[in-house]
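quick one
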Amino acid sequence: MSFEAKRCGVQFSPPSIVLIYQQKETKDVRKRIIPVRNFSKYSDCSMAAEGLKNHPRHKDYLEGVSQSQLEKLHIILRDHMQGLSLEHSLASFRLDPDEDLNQLDDDKLARKKGKMDELFEKNRKHKDDPDFVYDLEMDFTKTTQEKCSWDEESDDGF
Amino acid sequence: MAGDAGSIPELDQKKYDSGEQVKIICLGDSAVGKSKLMERFLMDEYRPQQLSTYALTLYKHTATVGNKTVAIDFWDTAGQERFQSMHPSYYHKAHACIMVFDVQRKITYKNLANWYKELREFRPEIPCCVVANKIDADLKVTQRSFNFGKKQGIPFYFVSAADGTNVVKMFREMITRAVEYKQNPSDFMDEVLQELENFDLEEKEDPEADEVGLKTESPELE
Ligand SMILES: Nc1nc2c(ncn2[C@@H]2O[C@H](COP(=O)(O)OP(=O)(O)OP(=O)(O)O)[C@@H](O)[C@H]2O)c(=O)[nH]1
Ligand SMILES: [Mg+2]
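structure w/ guanosine-5'-triphosphate:
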């Protein structure tokens, strides 16, 4: 039996991960509620996500859900346990291109990197991919012409 | 802090004086992709050594340059502000520097000026390059010319750690330049140090030199 994950979210009480999936053979769409056990406001979200991803009873259903998404959902649950609002959690994942990430602590930075990982994983070429080239080269010197606006306003030694 | 240069107890930096040991450092803001670039270049080969107190990761690599085998240590540190106090030892004895920014975040490009300034305070002459990472996110950026590298007279690369574009090329060229620099160092600092050493020697031969400038305890003062 194989499943295709459609959507994945959280439910605060009792704390659970909610998965909407389709059974590939029958095309039935179902909801699976996975209670998150032994998880507190002090828990390590990355470890909890890994545990769930490899859980014998759930792992077949969660195959299409990345570990970083599961980690994100655990962060939302943990934030809620710490009394933080859902809006706060979601804002912490959002990427603001002007924000100076050098100032963030580990946890906050991990949230931003988690968000960046979505695109990274999407564009990533793996060593097992048939078209993988280790030494991939592209020459952009012919295509670069436009001046970059980032170089203007040069009051800072640029 | 400068007196601490090179004094990470876990690490012996003297080895970088030997002919076959090269040290290449990586600089840039948080989350620009420094670590992902290392991992892409080294693939499965890498066995990083983590020194989390210093937010430092060391990647070891062996390469052949010309007909010589060299052992390269890549030093990767976090861009986070609170780790910046370790920087003097980070720069110490480095033979080349890779500076990275994220093409999706202007602030990381603007900050290159600060990274570069700090680098040049410690290592005025080592080969350096500017790397524009994450071009997979928007290939259009490669049509723009980023002038920072040109202005400083250092090479510029468009790369992507995700799909691998130009990563290997950039690392290989930097390794070659690091080795060349090592064989033929022109670092001002090193020269100053050498002159100081010479001065020291002359001084011992000529006791009168003590009176010039150097305050040494001398019995004649009594
Ligand atoms: N799309 C895309 N994303 C990337 C690329 N390289 C890195 N990323 C993303 O950027 C995030 C940060 O990359 P890291 O390698 O951790 O950045 P870093 O410079 O080592 O960051 P610090 O060590 O915290 O200073 C990763 O989690 C990826 O999601 C790339 O080439 N393309
Ligand atoms: Mg890193």
